[in-house]
Amino acid sequence: MARTHTVIASPLGDLIAVAEDGVLSGLYFERHRRGPKPEERGTHSESGFEEVRRQLGEYFAGERTRFELPLAPQGDEFQQQVWNLLREIPFGETRTYGDLARQLGNVSLAQAVGAANARNPLSVIVPCHRMVGADGSLTGYAGGLDRKRFLLDLEEPAEQKAARLF
After folding, report:
1. In this structure, are strands 131-132 and 95-96 parallel, antiparallel, or unpaired?
2. Sign of the torsion formed by the C-alpha atoms of 40, 50, 26 and 28
3. CA–CA separation, 76 vs 96, rounded Å?
4. How many Cα atoms within 13 Å fall on the side-chain side of residue 152?
């Protein structure tokens, strides 16, 4: 298995993209909680990440609402289920951990959903930033709450932005 990585500039700082045999397996912020150590990122390469770079650029420019990339996140079966549900959260919307636990058929799984969400290796692309607390508050984010707030503001529908008082 060949692991490669590159660095992609973004409005949130540099993102580290990691691929396994040419398929995106990770996208991390600098100083990302639970991100791979430099020696675990594989060989640095500028090639093979063109589509990731293009789609991220479109997303940050407000031109893309869904990523269409082959993905290979590494995780157990439960984590994979949670990450698949995250990908179904529509652009501009949020869900609670309890919402996803109910989708999985057991509301008592909310904490386990939170733990799987925290281990999402594909920040931004698998939109774990769309998860909020049961009361709608911003909760932990591996890239930091300022980045989470930025992403949610980027995705906020124009009519909601216009209706805000501040």
Report:
1. parallel
2. positive
3. 21
4. 19
CA distance 144 to 39: 23
Residue 74's pLDDT band (cuts 50, 70, 90) = very high
Beta carbons within 10 angstroms of residue 31's beta carbon: 10
Record the tokens describing residue 100, joined without a space: 């996803």
Active-site hit among 100, 128, 131, 151 = 128
Q: Structure pTM?
A: 0.90
Residue 128 among the catalytic residues: yes
Residue 82 has pLDDT above 60, yes or no: yes
Three-state secondary structure call for residue 141: coil
Q: What is the mean pLDDT of the chain?
A: 91
- Residue (of 27, 23, 33) closest to 7 by Cα position: 27
